[in-house]
């Protein structure tokens, strides 16, 4: 079966972009950069499209519909409480979404203030239903668990504490990628 090419939509002006941007923000919270990327596909080309996007972003900020500070705080809270991710992972994700580093730093510092990282790592393990390594392949499983925890944004010291609590000699564990 042949795939049909999606038709290129007609570029829209400021009013059309505003309607589209509000719809996108209503469905999911977004950073300013993400919203601009989405609007880019619909906007007219050249300076006229840039001016329309700038006007829409300014109006959305004026209406308090778009705020990278609020986005960063809410995103951080959701990733910490829901996904149980560590601080570093949330910082990297927000940076990838185009949020300014000062905004990221403030939101993450506030959200992770006083958080027991080892406890959060254990909650992540429980959420992901990861089992304590045992048997012949305990060393390889421990390395896999270690890699997953590091990718989830936990510090090496927190990961070592979790593995040590499981009775795994950390010196023997080599970090290996498990393809996840």
SSE layout and pairings?
Elements lengths: L13 H14 L4 H11 L4 H16 L5 H16 L3 H10 L4 H11 L5 H11 L10 H14 L4 H10 L15
Helix pairs in contact: 1-2, 1-3, 2-3, 4-5, 4-6, 5-6, 7-9, 8-9
Any overview of this molecule?
This protein is mainly alpha-helical. The chain folds into three domains: 14-62; 68-111; 117-172, no CATH class. Helices cover 63% and strands 0% of the residues. Helix 1 (14-27) packs across helix 2 (32-42).
Task: Fill in the keyword field for this structure.
63% helix; 3 domains
Gyration radius, in Å:
22 Å
Helix count, per DSSP? Answer: 9
Count all strands and give the number. Answer: 0
What count of domains describes the coordinates? 3
Q: Give the helix/strand class.
A: mainly alpha
What is the overall silhouette? elongated
Strand content: under 5%
Share of helix among residues? 55-70%
Low-confidence stretches: 176-180
H/E order of the elements? HHHHHHHHH
């Amino acid at each position: 079966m042949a795939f049909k090419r999606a038709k290129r939509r007609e570029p829209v002006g400021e009013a059309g972009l505003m309607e589209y941007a509000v719809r996108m923000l209503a469905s999911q919270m977004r950073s300013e950069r993400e919203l601009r990327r989405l609007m880019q596909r619909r906007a007219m080309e050249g300076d006229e499209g840039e001016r329309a996007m700038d006007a829409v972003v300014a109006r959305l900020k004026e209406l308090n519909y778009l705020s990278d500070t609020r986005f960063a705080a809410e995103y951080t809270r959701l990733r910490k409480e829901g996904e149980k991710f560590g601080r570093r992972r949330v910082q990297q994700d927000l940076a990838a979404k185009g949020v300014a580093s000062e905004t990221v730093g403030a939101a993450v510092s506030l959200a992770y203030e006083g958080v027991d990282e080892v406890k959060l790592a254990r909650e992540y393990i429980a959420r992901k239903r990861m089992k304590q390594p045992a048997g012949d392949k305990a060393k390889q499983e421990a390395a896999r668990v270690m890699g997953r925890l590091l990718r989830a944004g936990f510090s090496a010291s927190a990961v070592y504490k979790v593995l040590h609590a499981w009775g795994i000699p950390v010196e023997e564990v080599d970090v290996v990628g498990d393809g996840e």
